[in-house]
Design goal:
The complex is a heterodimer of chains A (about 290) and B (about 210).
Chain A lengths: L1 H20 L1 H37 L1 E6 L5 H9 L4 E7 L1 H12 L11 E6 L5 H9 L4 E5 L2 H43 L1 H10 L3 H45 L11 H27 L3
Antiparallel strand pairs in A: 1-3, 1-4, 2-3
Chain B lengths: L3 E5 L6 H8 L11 E2 L2 E2 L8 H6 L1 E4 L11 H11 L4 H14 L15 H13 L5 E5 L7 H16 L3 E6 L2 H7 L2 E6 L2 E6 L14
Parallel strand pairs in B: 1-6, 1-7, 4-5, 5-6
Antiparallel strand pairs in B: 2-3, 7-8
The chains are: A alpha+beta (about 290), B alpha/beta (about 210).
């Protein structure tokens, strides 16, 4: 009970500190919110791209053209044993020829097409490995796959991740400095009060605790603002992007976006940690009891 | 009845330094400082708040929180210790009764006279029931009449069982009360007399 009363006292002191902070509170929150928005946006984008690449991988087909004289069902059985192979579809050369004739009205020739296997994989990362394994099968003449798009998408995702981490690190450092300076201003404006508290025998953590809590509140408010901005942007562009993707990959599922809740939790934890550590560092440096 | 003593001496004699050593605002370059049999120069930094809570401290500039009422100033340390609100109310009322400020609970320090502010400082010093009260030049900012009232108030607190140590260079109040006088000169005790007086010119003799 006594501890609860002390915590209530710390909370009251925190509210008073925030009131004294005035406009500088909003300066800290704005900068931290910008940093978190960029970080959260990058997180949201990379995780969504990961989903897209994964979905692309599930749509990605490798075509394996068989040598003449081999039973496609036997080869298909062998191929289906390979790791990461999700589905193997046999396209007999007669069927392929009929489709080609229907589509292009080709002249009546002897069927030049081979038996073909369309192989779907679990992930885009395993395309090259699987293609290599397929080439090693002596009943397969030729292997084709449209890898470039998937590879570029993956490269773009890695670039976004690296750039996002760099920008977030720089903004986090800037935020730590701004929080530090703000808390320092609070300490300077309350210098006499802190001196009196110390002379009365108030415990140091009762003096420093409200400042750390103030930093945590900055972090939480910033995380809420950042998540709101990301959520609004996400909602606005989601329909458009998904529509484009469905046009591009007709069988792709429409719900590829990364959930907002995990992003919010990450931003909340990051914001609170940055806020608390900035305040703790500054109050430890400037309050000597 | 608690001990009651003045520490006197001219400016620079070391009166305030002794006080700051006693509440561990300063550490001596050499030597020891004992309070209640404990050498406080060896206390860990985290034990200093506990020491200060066992000492009530009264300052020349009152050191009140300007944005808090009289009640909140006196109650502050009790709240920081998590004392129950009813208990706080009881102890604050009692302390304000001792200094005769029961009717000023809602006033802010800026609304009070110097003497009243010092009374609030004294109430804050005694609210936690310390065995010792240190008063560092408590009358330095007050007129002679109010000064005497403040020192008489501290004497009254001493009569309730609290040891009171006052540093001052106010000859009038020292000589009015005729209590124990410890005289300092250039950082050294040059006299320690029961029922003493403070003679500015002859303070090297302590009489």
């Amino acid at each position: 009970m006594r501890q609860l009363r002390i915590l209530a006292g710390v909370a009251t002191e925190t509210v008073q500190g925030l009131k004294q902070g005035g406009w500088s509170n909003w300066l800290v929150v704005s900068i931290l919110a910008i940093a978190l928005t960029i970080f959260g946006g990058v997180l949201q984008l990379t995780m969504t791209l990961k989903n897209v690449v994964s979905a692309w991988g599930s749509q990605l087909e490798i075509s394996a053209y068989l040598k003449d004289g081999f039973d496609p069902r036997t080869v298909a059985k062998e191929v289906s044993q390979l790791p990461n192979v999700k589905l193997v579809e046999i396209v007999p050369k007669e069927v392929a020829w009929q489709e080609m004739q229907a589509a292009f009205k080709v002249a009546a020739l002897n069927n030049p097409l081979p038996n073909t296997l369309h192989i779907q994989l679990n992930s885009v990362d395993s395309v090259e490995r699987t293609a290599k394994s397929l080439r090693a099968i002596n009943t397969i003449e030729h292997v084709r796959y449209p890898l470039t798009v998937a590879q570029n998408l993956n490269r773009f995702r890695h670039f976004i991740e690296a750039a996002g981490i760099a920008v977030t690190a720089a903004l986090t450092a800037a935020t730590l400095m701004v929080i530090g300076n703000t808390i320092q201003l609070v300490i300077q404006s309350r210098n006499r009060e802190i001196e009196i508290q110390s002379l009365m025998g108030v415990n140091p953590w009762y003096i420093k605790g409200p400042l750390v809590l103030q930093g945590i509140i900055y972090g939480v408010v910033s995380a809420i603002l950042a998540t709101s901005v990301i959520w609004a942007t996400d909602t606005y562009i989601d329909c458009y992007v998904t529509g484009q993707l469905i046009g591009f990959m007709p069988l792709i599922q429409s719900n590829l976006g990364y959930g907002m809740l995990p992003t919010f939790i990450v931003l909340l934890l990051l914001g609170a940690t940055v806020g608390a550590s900035g305040s703790a560092w500054t109050s430890g440096r400037f309050i000597k009891i | 009845m608690g001990e009651f003593a003045f520490i006197v001496g001219p400016s620079g004699a070391g009166k305030s330094t002794i006080m700051r050593l006693l509440y561990r605002e300063e550490k001596p370059a050499a030597g020891q400082v004992f309070i209640g049999g404990i050498d406080i120069t060896r206390l860990d930094r985290n034990q200093v708040p506990l020491l200060r809570r066992r000492l009530g401290i009264v300052f020349q500039d009152y050191k009140l929180l300007p944005k808090q009422t009289v009640y909140d100033n006196v109650a502050y340390i009790l709240r920081a210790l998590g004392v129950d609100a009813n208990e706080i109310s009881k102890r604050v009322s009692s302390a304000l009764c001792v200094v005769n400020l029961e009717n000023k609970v809602d006033a802010y320090p800026g609304e009070l006279s110097g003497g009243e502010q010092q009374r609030v400082g004294i109430a804050r010093a005694i609210v936690n029931g310390p065995p010792v009260v240190l008063a560092d030049e408590p009358t330095g900012n007050l007129d002679p009449v109010t000064s005497l009232e403040i020192v008489q108030l501290l004497e009254k607190i001493s009569q309730r069982g609290t040891t009171v140590l006052i540093s001052t260079h106010d000859q009038f109040i020292v000589n009015s009360l005729r209590r124990r006088v410890i005289s300092l000169k250039q950082g050294k005790v040059v006299a320690d007399v029961d029922s003493g007086i403070y003679e500015m010119e002859a303070n090297s003799q302590g009489l």
